UniProtKB/TrEMBL annotation:
Descriptive protein name: Aminotransferase class I/II-fold pyridoxal phosphate-dependent enzyme
Pfam families (UniProt xref): Cys_Met_Meta_PP (PF01053)
Keyword Membrane on entry: no
Cofactor: pyridoxal 5'-phosphate
UniProt key word Protein transport: no
NCBIfam families the UniProt entry points to: PRK06460.1 (NF005047)
InterPro entries to which the protein is assigned, alphabetical: Cys/Met-Metab_PyrdxlP-dep_enz, PyrdxlP-dep_Trfase, PyrdxlP-dep_Trfase_major, PyrdxlP-dep_Trfase_small
Keywords: Aminotransferase, Lyase, Pyridoxal phosphate, Transferase
Length: 374
């Protein structure tokens, strides 16, 4: 993988000389000069700059910005699928993404196959021809690491399209397009923006695909407003600095949790105990900022740990400078049935920790005192 993370210069405003992209808070633009943008639901200068910058960072020809991470997923998949098309997803992924595939797209007439967790199952099922394969590079919430490099080769050999949700990895730790993926999507609400203050999504890839995605965005109306686009642009400027700290903090927290008597199991790709550690070493430059772990005890014990924390905030999000913790069975993955949770190994005592940039010793002390409460 290429060294470093390309953070390209923003396009300066020629008329004012502003050194940051202005917030063009306007619904429409006056003719004839404004003909390029016309109407902000279709194109806005601030959001267009964000889409361009994301494509440059990820190594894609074209980017598109959306009103949310799910907006980027739904719009991208709708542009690639139609009734009768084939879609392959993994069971271990964000609950709403799985519901989109199994409920809506299947009812729409798409042939949806769901791979059990693990690269062996996924790579074997991906050998069927002319399929759209949608995966998370690091899965939510059990942090399985998809072998994007070999999966991309199989997809190319079979005339399939590979779409990778790289929210957990970020372009600092992995660039799926460089590994052979066709399209990368991210929830920019998370690590890209990085401050828990914006909802946004992004997608990038070749112009031949992204032009269709952009037209679908205009039709569906999943367009991003200029102010949140500005906030994501601001966050991108510190992405590399934040992720360097977050990667280090998360590794130390994972090592601490793995040795704690009140923790049954830790899920983190940087640990040698992780089932995909060898894959992670090959396809990731860093192991990310999310650490999941099973508390010894019941769901109530896990909730008590979460509620006993003093620095780490209990909340259903991730990727910010503040550390957040959630209980996936009752929060991010509450829409999954008990059978679905069992199939991916999502236990009732599982907690998902998004590690921030606080002093790592403070985070470890906070976790220790909360775990001792049970």
């Amino acid at each position: 993988m290429r060294e470093g993370t390309k953070i390209s210069r923003e396009t300066y405003d020629d008329e004012t000389g502003a050194i940051t992209t202005p917030i063009f808070q306007s619904t429409a633009f006056r003719f004839p000069k404004g003909e390029k943008y016309r109407y902000s639901r279709e194109v806005n200068p601030t959001t267009a700059e964000l889409a361009k910058k994301f494509a440059e960072i990820e190594g894609g020809e074209m980017g598109v910005a959306f009103s949310s991470g799910m907006g980027s997923i739904t719009t991208t998949l709708f542009s690639l699928l139609s009734p009768g098309s084939s879609l392959l997803v993994t069971m271990d992924m964000f609950g709403r993404s799985l519901r989109l595939a199994k409920d809506f797209l299947r009812n729409w007439g798409v042939k949806v196959d769901v791979s059990p967790p693990g690269n062996g199952n996924l790579l074997d099922m991906a050998k069927r021809p002319h399929t759209v394969v949608f995966v998370e590079s690091i899965t939510n919430p059990l942090l399985r690491v998809v072998d994007v490099e070999n999966l991309a080769k199989i997809c190319k050999e079979n005339g399939s399209i590979l779409v990778v949700d790289s929210t957990f990895a970020t372009p600092v730790n992995q660039k799926p397009l460089e590994l052979g993926a066709d399209v990368v999507v991210e929830s920019a609400s998370k690590f890209l923006a990085g401050h828990n203050d914006v909802i946004a999504g992004l997608s990038a890839g070749p112009a031949s695909i992204m032009t269709k995605v952009d037209q679908m965005r205009r039709t569906l109306g999943t367009s991003l407003e200029p102010f949140p686009a500005y906030l994501v642009l601001r966050g991108l400027k510190t992405l590399k600095v934040r992720m360097d700290v977050i990667n280090r903090n998360a590794m130390q927290v994972a090592e601490f949790l793995e040795d704690h008597p009140k923790v049954q199991r830790v899920y983190y790709p940087g640990l040698e105990s992780h089932p995909d550690h060898s894959v992670a070493r090959r396809v990731l430059k860093g192991y990310g900022g999310v650490v999941s772990f099973d508390v010894r005890g019941t769901a109530n014990d896990a909730l008590k740990v979460m509620q006993s924390l003093k620095i780490i905030i209990p909340a259903q999000s991730l990727g910010g400078v503040n550390s957040l913790i959630s209980h996936p069975p009752t929060m991010s993955h509450r829409t999954l049935t008990p059978e679905e949770r069992k199939a991916i190994g999502l236990n009732e005592g599982l907690l998902r920790l998004s590690v921030g940039i606080e002093d790592v010793e403070d985070l470890i002390e906070d976790l220790d005192q909360a775990l001792k409460s049970i």
